[in-house]
Amino acid sequence: MVQDEAGISGIREIGARMVAATSQDSANFFGFYDLCPFSPDGRDLLLLNCPADWVTLPVGEPALVRRWRPEDATFETLGETRGWNWQHGARQQWRRDGSILYNDVDGQGHAVARNVSPDGTPIRTLDMAIGALSPDESIGVGGNYARLARLDPTYGYGAAVDRHLGEGPTQDGLWSVSMADGAASLLLSYAELAEIVGSPHSDRRFVTHPVFSPDGTRLAFFVTDAGEGGTTYARLLVRDCASGKVRVVAQERVSHPAWIGEDRIWYWGRNSGAVRALATNRLLANPAVRAVARFARRLLRARMNQLVAEGFYVSDLNDDTRKRVAEHTLTEDGHYSWHGYGSVLLGDTYPDGDAWLTLLLFDLASGQRVDLARIRHEVATREEPMRCDLHPRWDRSGTRVCIDFVTDGCRRTGIFDVGPALSRLATAGA
After folding, report:
1. CB-based burial label for 67 (10 Å; 0-12, 13-18, 19+)
2. Contact 44/67 with Cβ under 8 angstroms?
3. pLDDT per residue as tens digits for the range 346-367
4. What is the pLDDT of residues 338-348, one digit of tens each?
5. Are β-strands 111-116 and 100-105 bridged in parallel, bridged antiparallel, or unpaired?
6. CA–CA distance, 421 with 370 (Å, rounded to integer)
7. How far is CA 122 from CA 37, 99, 263, 351, in A?
8. Quick check: 376 pLDDT over 50?
9. CB 3.0-4.6 Å disulfide test: which of 181, 225, 292, 421 passes with 15?
10. Domain range summary for the chain, segments of one domain joined by +
11. CA distance linking residue 420 with residue 166, whole number of Å
12. What pLDDT digit, counting tens, does each position of 125-184 carry?
């Protein structure tokens, strides 16, 4: 029987019950919200493991790739990786045949992907690290993780060597790898992307966060410019995989996309020319100006969002329309995902002023929100890259969700039963 973890310090159950959690003996976590950590049969989860007291960005230290079986609280080590970070893990994921894929950095400093059997036996090493695998598992796509480590260390691999440094915008960009033979090729170069976004190439531009639509016909990804003093200018692009046509869906302030079916995409964004101009201005390089902006944002979050039209949007790619949603219900950015049926999304919030994060469900059709739990953000450092977002992920049945959280500085993974909450949401929306 799965252990009831309701008594964990820093967990306040509201609309769902926590049914399992890893211990505090060492750090165990999954990573981002766009992959499913649950095995095809739903019994095991893929996690990374490292010492509980690590509080710095990895620059080559290995993490263990392990499978966790909550029902008997056992772990099996499948391998280790130097290609990982706190926010995205090693992009570890299950394939349909039960084998496992995860990123690594090899002995030459090259970011690669390992395909191993369910017991960790090597099957193949692919010539690039993978950010997203197509639903039919024919190709993987990803950016340059060494470039990311230089321009946005939160999401890069500090151990990786940039194989394309100094080669120019025609030799790097968004990459594709064949899952049949493991060969990598350039899908979209930075030179091509510069034409698409209508902005000259910059050595501080990077590609990240690729995610396929559920049927694999479209690919969303970010093209981001690292600006002054930690600022960024982001663009959400979508590529039609059949025609190769690429469109800019949103830009300037855009984050956390989630596909809702094949033709609609959800994301946090804003629509303000004044703010867009400010984001590209060197004024924000001044630490004092940035500090004042952050304080004003926390103090007047809802009002600020109204003034700059910042919030969640849904873009329909068939008719190029864009609609503001949940304006008064979801007033801050978070990590949302759609399970694949109905209109319910799973999401979270960032820590509030008292360091509490909220796990929640939102019904896009009815506008109903159900809070599932409040989780205290007990990280041991205030360094931004070391934060532990919940990054909630559905299981394959759509009745359980998995989160990362921190207790007394130790990263852990927990599972909530959301079946009853989904039933209440369905009843409320009827």
Report:
1. buried
2. yes
3. 999 999 999 999 999 999 999 9
4. 998 899 999 99
5. antiparallel
6. 7
7. 20, 10, 37, 40
8. yes
9. 421
10. 1-33+343-430
11. 55
12. 999 999 999 999 999 999 999 999 999 999 999 999 999 998 999 999 999 999 998 889
- Give 5's pLDDT tier (boundaries 50, 70, 90): very low
Site of tokens 């056992």: 74
Determine the Cα–Cα distance for residues 246 and 101; give it in Å rounded to an integer. Answer: 28
Tens digits of per-residue pLDDT, 182-226?
889 999 999 999 999 999 999 999 999 999 999 999 999 999 999
As a whole number of angstroms, the distance between CA 248 and CA 182 comes to 30
CA distances from 422 to 14, 178, 186, 301, 401 (A): 13, 38, 42, 29, 12
pLDDT digits (tens, 9 = 90+) for 21-79: 999 999 999 999 999 999 999 999 999 999 998 888 888 999 999 999 999 999 999 99
What's the whole-number mean pLDDT along residues 102-116? 97
Query: What are the angstrom distances between the C-alpha of 417 and each of 31, 349, 393?
Result: 20, 19, 12
List the one residue out of 93, 97, 62 whose CA is nearest residue 80. Answer: 62
CB 15 within 8 A of CB 421: yes
Question: Region 103-121: what's the mean pLDDT?
Answer: 97
* Residue 189 confidence (pLDDT): 98
Residue with tokens 């559920």: 214
Rounded to an integer, what is the distance from CA 204 to the centroid of its chain? 21
Assigned token pair, 63 = 């993490």
Per-residue b/e over 35-64, b at no fewer than 16 CB within 10 Å? bbbbbeeeebbbbbbbebebeebbeeebbb
Classify residue 352 by burial, with Cβ atoms within 10 Å: 0-12, 13-18, 19+: middle
